[in-house]
């Protein structure tokens, strides 16, 4: 019998290791196998098994184990802020370059970044102009490595409209780029943008979607206990014939009251199955 994912036409289900921060690679692989999730977003940080301090041998070992497990790495999740101001002017570029090399070494196709813009327009803000310069600085490296830079709809750029405006400017300045976007659907929803609008705006650059459930105050809650309109989202994706991954960004590191991924992953599969048109 076809699964909900098959009927919806999505590539598959993934999860972020933000939901199991501090666990080992072996534990992540075992969790994915046990729950039937085929993709992962790997958080890169000093307190994780994946970080830019890994040696070449360690990186090769991570890649071999991921490939043996058949896990697709959607992105390496960095904390680079493209619009960040202050400090050493080239620090964000250097850090992004380090994460691009890490992603290439372990077989990931992309690096997740944030915008983190504290400036305002009109037109492109000062921070966005700085972000453009930074993307131009890593463009050749990104292309050589075959690793994309993906902006998550988050913080200052939670709205698809603002991300689309910025990426349109990137298109003009760097026409042959492969940069794109991770659509955190809860962030655009929490800022009043409909899923239909977000998809239309972000479609030209869309890599994959993140999902989670949230209450009326937009706080993360157990899957199925909140108000996130998962049924509407799935219907819109199907109507637009969108193909790609859905990834559960389970923010348990920041919200320890949430259930573990052992509970959240099966609940997510059931949530999607129940809501699939």
From TrEMBL:
Q: Name one Pfam family in it.
A: AP_endonuc_2
Q: Which segments constitute the Xylose isomerase-like TIM barrel domain?
A: 29-260
List, alphabetically, the Gene3D superfamilies matched.
Divalent-metal-dependent TIM barrel enzymes (3.20.20.150)
Molecular function (GO) terms listed? isomerase activity
Keywords carried by this UniProt record: Isomerase
Protein name listed in UniProt: Sugar phosphate isomerase/epimerase
Name its species: Microlunatus panaciterrae
Which lineage do the record's taxonomy fields give for this organism?
A: Bacteria, Bacillati, Actinomycetota, Actinomycetes, Propionibacteriales
């Amino acid at each position: 019998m076809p699964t909900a994912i098959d009927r919806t036409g999505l590539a598959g289900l993934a999860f972020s290791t933000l939901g199991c921060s501090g666990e080992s690679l072996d534990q992540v692989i075992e969790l994915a196998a046990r729950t039937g999730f085929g993709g992962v977003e790997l958080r890169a940080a000093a307190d994780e098994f994946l970080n830019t301090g890994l040696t070449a041998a360690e990186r090769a070992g991570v890649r071999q184990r991921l490939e043996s497990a058949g896990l697709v790495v959607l992105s390496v999740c960095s904390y680079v802020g493209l619009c960040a101001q202050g400090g050493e002017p080239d620090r964000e570029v250097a850090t992004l370059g380090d994460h691009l090399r890490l992603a290439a070494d372990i077989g990931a196709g992309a690096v997740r970044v944030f915008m983190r813009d504290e400036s305002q327009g009109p037109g492109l803000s000062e921070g966005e102009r700085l972000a453009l310069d930074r993307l131009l600085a890593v463009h050749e490296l990104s292309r050589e490595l075959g690793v994309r830079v993906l902006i998550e709809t988050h913080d200052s750029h939670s709205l698809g409209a603002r991300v689309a405006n910025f990426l349109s400017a990137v298109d003009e300045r760097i026409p042959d780029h492969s940069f794109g976007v991770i659509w955190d659907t809860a962030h655009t929803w929490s800022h009043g943008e409909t899923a239909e609008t977000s998809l239309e705006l972000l479609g030209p650059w869309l890599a994959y979607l993140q999902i989670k459930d949230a209450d009326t105050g937009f706080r993360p809650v157990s899957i199925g206990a909140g108000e996130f309109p998962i049924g509407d989202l799935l219907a819109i994706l199907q109507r637009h014939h969108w193909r790609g991954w859905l990834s559960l960004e389970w923010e348990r590191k920041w919200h320890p009251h949430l259930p573990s991924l052992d509970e959240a992953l099966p609940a997510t599969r059931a949530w999607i199955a129940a809501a699939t048109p």
